[in-house]
Amino acid sequence: MSDTLPPCPECNSAYTYEADSLLVCPECGHEWSPAAAGEGETVVRDAVGNVLADGDTVTVIKDLKVKGSSTVVKVGTKVRGIRLVDGDHDIDCKVPGIGQMGLKSQFVKKVSE
């Protein structure tokens, strides 16, 4: 094989493989089309698979320790007006009582309004 397969867009695992016309990640089970892998905009999904967009309201589904502090973002904390960014922490937001911080989409659930 002359070219290497791209890493998983969900968990960044390098162990992706081809299954029929899809690429598959053995670590998180994510499947995607190779044609979609090269397109510009990535889709960010919450812990249950809902597509997130700028301005959405999400709820934290797990207690999260704030790095470098003794503060904890409690489960059930509602965060309004999120902004999607590239990187490991793909949500930029202002958490009530804590302030500006980045969250991983795998630890939030979209609130249906």
Automatic annotation (TrEMBL):
Q: Kindly give the InterPro entries that the UniProt entry links to this protein.
A: YjdM (IPR004624), YjdM_C (IPR013988), YjdM_N (IPR013987)
Q: Which UniProt keywords apply?
A: Hydrolase
State any single GO MF term: hydrolase activity
* Gene3D superfamilies, sorted: 2.20.25.10, SH3 Domains (2.30.30.40)
Q: Name one Pfam family in it.
A: YjdM
Fetch the NCBIfam families from UniProt: phnA (TIGR00686)
Please give the name of this protein.
Answer: Phosphonoacetate hydrolase
Q: Which organism is it from?
A: Rhodobacter aestuarii
The beginning of the lineage is: Bacteria, Pseudomonadati, Pseudomonadota, Alphaproteobacteria, Rhodobacterales
